[in-house]
Amino acid sequence: MKKKIAIIGFCFVLALIIISMMQPSEYSVKETITLNQTNAVVITHIQDLKAWRQWSPWFERDPEMELEYSDPSVGRGASVIWKSKSEGDGKQTITDVVENEFVKMKLEFYKPFTGEAYAFFRVKSVEESKTELTWLMESSNKGLVDKFFYFAFGVKSMIQKDFNKGLNNLKKVVEAKKEA
């Protein structure tokens, strides 16, 4: 009986290892939304890191998150360090901005797991005062442990849910604003 349990346990662990090995080494998550607002207003809410409190799903889940902003907290070079019991610890830095078109950010994760990712926000006018916003994140699974967590926790679908929530929150915020 113990031998059967050991064999079943071994097969289960082996299956997890094989499934984990089959996970992608690199992955991306992309979501798009159309907002009834100009590119300028939309991009302002993305490149102003303090404005994220108004729409980010992560701040919504942990309103007590500790934040340390760079000065300035807007535009290329701006960063925020976060510490959160539920959302982990990390740093977000704006690495590139093309006015009214594009923002690129580097994400560094410190706790509960270490990692790195890049987020991209691209805005495109689709009509007067109507903007298509795409939020893209690219990252990698550097080893078997990363691949296991990617599979076991459904990382891609978890991020997609957060992106959808964030984009819909942002839509409410920017559509309530009048263009300056």
Keywords:
Alpha-D-Glucose-1,6-Bisphosphate, Chain A, domain 4; alpha+beta; 7 strands; 180 residues; seven-stranded antiparallel sheet; 36% helix
Q: How does this model look, in words?
A:
By secondary structure, the protein is α+β, with helices and mostly antiparallel strands. Helix content is 36%, strand content 36%. The chain has a domain at 27-61 and 99-105 and 114-175: START domain (Alpha-D-Glucose-1,6-Bisphosphate, Chain A, domain 4), CATH 3.30.530.20. The chain contains five helices and seven strands. Strands 1-7-6-5-4-3-2 form a seven-stranded antiparallel β-sheet. Helix 1 packs across helix 4 (144-152). 19% of the residues are buried.
Gist of the model:
This protein is α+β, with helices and mostly antiparallel strands and 180 residues long. 36% of the residues lie in helices and 36% in strands. The termini are far apart.
**Proportion of β residues?**
35-45%
Average pLDDT, all residues: 86
Oligomerization state: single chain
Number of strands: 7
Computed Rg: 19 Å
Low-confidence spans: none
